[in-house]
Design brief:
Helix content: 25-40%
Structural class: alpha+beta
Number of strands: 9
CATH class of the largest domain: Alpha Beta
CATH architecture of the largest domain: 2-Layer Sandwich
Number of helices: 4
Shape: elongated
CATH topology of the largest domain: Alpha-Beta Plaits
Order of helices and strands: EHEEHEEEHEEHE
Distance between the termini: 15 Å
CATH superfamily of the largest domain: YajQ-like, domain 2
Length: about 160
């Protein structure tokens, strides 16, 4: 008899690729004709990226440049959680872009509920920052993966690991 198959659903990304994308965005902004003399700064910390610019137009252009570089580095654009624009003084504005690095409890419950609703034979269980999914059939696990990749309700950069 075959034992149960399982996999883990996590929310993670390659930090080095993100750093490369931020560096490429800085480089493009510093050489782009309409943005190079504006003094745009992109600062990356462990859990956020801050974009500071002198106008709303240049803020949107800088964010779009960063987003394009993230996509070019084969990272999911869902890792960037853009907050509202903040006015700092004068005409200076900034975006604080939070990085989605882990599957929090609320998101894990949401993922688990969606799986239970659409796949009643599959057993999801929340284990810290991961959701372990077990099933007797590997085909059902592959169905769960396909469903989560196309689901519009769950807006997270999900990764599927430990597929056994």
């Amino acid at each position: 008899m075959a034992s149960d198959s399982s996999m883990d659903i996590i929310c993670d990304f390659n930090v080095h690729e993100l750093t490369n994308a931020v560096d490429q965005a800085r480089r493009e902004i510093s050489t782009r004709y309409d943005l190079k003399s504006l003094g745009i700064t992109i600062d990356q910390t462990e859990d956020a990226i801050t974009i500071t610019t002198p106008s709303e137009y240049s803020l949107n252009a800088a964010f779009e440049t960063l987003l394009q570089k993230v996509i070019n580095r084969k990272l999911s654009p869902k890792i960037l959680n853009k907050k509202d624009m903040e006015k700092m003084g004068g005409t200076t504005v900034r975006y604080k872009v939070e990085l989605v690095k882990a599957l929090d409890q609320e998101s894990a419950k949401k993922v688990s509920a969606v799986i239970r609703e659409k796949f009643p034979k599959v057993k999801p269980s929340i284990q810290g920052q991961a959701v372990r999914v077990t099933s007797k059939s590997r085909d059902e696990l592959q169905g769960v993966i396909a469903m989560l990749r196309t689901d519009k309700v769950i807006d997270l950069p999900l990764q599927f690991t430990n597929y056994r």
